[in-house]
Amino acid sequence: MMERKYVPETKETLTNKDFKSDQMVKWCPGCGDHFILNSLLNAYPQTKHKKENIVLVSGIGCSSRIPYYVDTYGFHSIHGRACAIATGVKLANPALSVWINMGDGDSMAIGGNHLIHICRRNMDVNITIHNNEIYGLTKGQYSPTTKFGMITKTSPFGTIDYPFNPGELVMGAQGTFFARTIDCDPKLTTNMMVRASEHNGASVVEVLQNCMIFNDKTHAPITNKDVRDDKTIVLEHGKPMIFGKEKNKGICFNGHQLEAVVIGENGVTIDDIMVHDETTEDTGVHMMLARMHGDMPVALGVIRNVRKDTYTEMYEAQMDDQKANGKYKCVDDLLNSGDTWEI
User: Fold this and answer.
1) What is the DSSP letter of 249?
2) Most buried in the list 5, 41, 106, 250, measured by CB within 10 Å?
3) Pairing state of beta strands 242-243 and 249-253?
4) Percentage of the chain with pLDDT > 90?
5) For residues 69 and 25, is the Cβ–Cβ distance under 8 A?
6) Rounded CA gap, 26 and 175, in Å?
7) DSSP string across 200-243
């Protein structure tokens, strides 16, 4: 396994104020993007990266305004192409800590192909998906994650598209890191961003975000304070999958699928509860955790965290090998190779 450390750390003590730009934040009051921005500002000092080594790349959409609000280098790119541009940035200068912010439409509709390939290649970048299940900037069209049957500006009779599950998409593309959080839990969101930055490879953090204008309360059935403890589970590596307001519920594997149980009922004990392993290479359980909904709690926290050589590491190793052992040492060698003619 290759282990190359590219991004230099700083000994300077930084705070979130050091990363806050002087630009007016132009999101609707109460938008979940505000919470995501604040979590990002709180996460950056914990990465210990120099400000000048951080680059924030975005596509198009409400979420993509974020480079203006963070005092680092930034690139507000074009619709769906943030992953492609970020790939070029990272390959051109591996010493940069590259962050990508996209909405659910930007990342999984026009940008879907780029998302799966940046995960497949395991580029060492940090991706945050703002998932409000709608197109917000263009005023309420359904997106790749909009719930089936929902009435929107472009589905007046209810959408008949089956929605993407971002976790399944990432893992199906051989992604090595996937975490999920909610915008109204800034502490968890900040922690997930820090964990993503620590991962050597492509990290994807899905934030369930609220758009109060065009899709208000789409995540309310699991995020409202009165139901959150029973409708979500925060996974922790090496710990039993326990949830519930009374911490008396858990996740078991019944032989072919996951199921939610109550500890103390039907002979269920704490020993029957599954222990979360985010590092197992097999995607089976991680896929099932990413899919949980309905009668099952929605999984939050780090679901998958697997170490695999990154594209940058392999690319640099390949270039080093060619410099040392390749037959072409300069451009003249290449131009004069093979068949040549004098005219």
Assistant:
1) E
2) 106
3) antiparallel
4) 90
5) yes
6) 33
7) SS-EEEEEE--BTTTBTTTTHHHHSTTTHHHHEEEE-TTSB-EE
Please give the DSSP secondary-structure letter assigned to residue 35.
H
Q: Would the pLDDT of 242 be above 90?
A: yes
Phi-psi region of 235 (alpha: psi -120 to 50; beta: other; left: phi over 0): beta
Angle of helix 32-47 relative to helix 186-198, nearest 10 degrees?
40
**Residues 87/88/91/96 CA torsion (nearest 10 deg):** -80
Question: By CB neighbour count within 10 A (0-12 exposed, 13-18 middle, 19+ buried), where does 156 fall?
Answer: exposed
Question: Alpha carbon of 142 to those of 154, 183, 212: distances in Å?
Answer: 6, 20, 15
Q: What is the pTM of this model?
A: 0.94
> Strand 258-262 and strand 203-208: pairing?
unpaired
Stretch 308-321: mean pLDDT:
93
326 vs 318: CA distance, rounded Å: 10
CA distances to 86, 106, 142, 158, 317 from 149, rounded to whole Å, are 35, 21, 10, 4, 49
List the one residue out of 157, 156, 152, 118 whose CA is nearest residue 133: 152
d(CA 95, CA 6): 5
Look up tokens 């500002």; give the residue.
41
pLDDT tops 70 at residue 4: no
Question: Taking Cα atoms as reference points, which of 169, 186, 177 lies closest to residue 33?
Answer: 186
